[in-house]
Amino acid sequence: MADGGTATMQTSNRSYEDAVVAMNSLITPTADLPPRDPTTGALNWNAHFRSFFRFIEILEMKEPLARLSVIHVAGTKGKGSTCAFTERMLRESGFRTGLFTSPHLLDVRERFRFNGEMISKDRFLYHFWWCWDRLQANNADLPGFFRFCTLLGLRMFTAEKVDVAILEVGLGGRLDATNIVESPVVCGIASLGYDHMELLGNTLAEIAWEKAGIFKAGVPAFTAPQPEEAMGSLQKRARELGITLKVAPALEDYGLSDLQLGLGGEHQRINAALAVALCKQWVMTRAPSEQHKELQKILGGGILPDSFVKGLQLTKWAGRAEVIHDPSGRLSFYIDGAHSPESMEACANWFCSRIKHEETTEVVQSSSNPERWNSKGFIMRRVLLFNCMPKRDPVLLLQPVINLCSKNGFPIHAAFFVPPYSSYTSVGTSHQAPTVTDATWQHTLQRHWESLWRDKLTDGSGFACLSRGERREPEIELLSTLKDASECNPQHGNMLGPSSAVLRSLPSALDHFRNCLTHHPQLRVQVLVTGSLYLVGDLLKLLKR
After folding, report:
1. Mean pLDDT across the stretch 512-518?
2. 269 is in an annotated binding site
3. 451 assigned binding-site residue
4. pLDDT (tens digit per residue) in 65-83
5. Residue 58 in domain
6. Annotated binding residue at 168?
7. What residues make up the domain containing 338?
């Protein structure tokens, strides 16, 4: 136990719920935004970032932070998975790891992991109140939620004396709170694409420039393969700092072309390769003890140690490329949170490849009993369950799902849109449904879906054709059974379309899927759950994962 005293001594009269209430007070629409310049009215991001150093001084973390051994990862898609691969490989190699990621799905403590496990409530409370009370005592304006989480994570990692801390950038890179770390051991850039353009820029070159802001003079940097425009910006920034930017070698370069990763999807091989490069660099330069000399020797020979291979095979990341089979039977959820067009493409391809694999093996593992399913004789229905935040462009997100699932021979039969079940402005874990639900945005999503659906039906690509011997019924059962149901009463904010429905809540959607299976014994439903990570987290809560 690090840093003197026990958690119970420090927090005996303050509960975990008290800490959650305090954290919730930091979540406001403008909490993590900078003040506006009084002259121009523009958001002053540079001054906002510099102000973060004051919090480090108040918490007396400057020296401990300088000693912290950090792997820093930015990117548009795959940075969280890259961090997960990195952490697992180093943990399997015998190192004590700390992992900071965002967002969380079920519990805010997921953001702070030690040796793969989220921090205990006792230790969370100890570090939380340690930071909170010192900031309050100095009459400091409290940072916004993400900035406070970053401070808290850094405090935890320095106090608990991890061998290595893996930090995932929250947004961008150059002005992200995690960039307060001035001397990381190695930096990595995962695949880049268009996201947060209102803050990072409208071109890949501009976005890449912001991501490359985590580069530091004298610190090695690695990147996943990038589009030419993005790579140019990354290389330019590296040259300015006098460092060499290397593209991470592919797993095939290590003789691992047949390696099955713990995370599904071909795109995960890119993330895993970047993680290998980061781990290799860290071990070769900062492995803390003599016992790891053998590990360095193996890596120096150009091959991967067994601990790295095992780590790649065992990596799991909740809500990403995850499959859950419902105990009710014949209902499966394919869960992959994705919030950019590139991520949606990867998600759709993973979904199709996973279904193809299941068809090949004809095995579905029920959470209660292993059962063997033969798709012949069943009415197969693939369903999209989707939501995203209003700041996203739904057409750019939905189009890859329609196009790629159709192209791969696994078209989506129906789409369901549900409003948030939990609040965007709370870190609590309550399962209580909101008393008032506004489905206006979900109706907008539905209109975009129906438009894309009609276009696909008429473009001559054969979208309506079902493959692999699937049976086409006159109507999609999952929609036709809603016609006379109160569940789809427009007065309740619900609406039924030719190929989609808006339902009032996520629990009602799950109930509907299960009821359909009860009334249609020959039906089997495969639900792709994607878009907002809030939706993913809510589903995992309801499935009690």
Report:
1. 91
2. no
3. no
4. 999 999 999 999 999 999 9
5. no
6. yes
7. 322-542
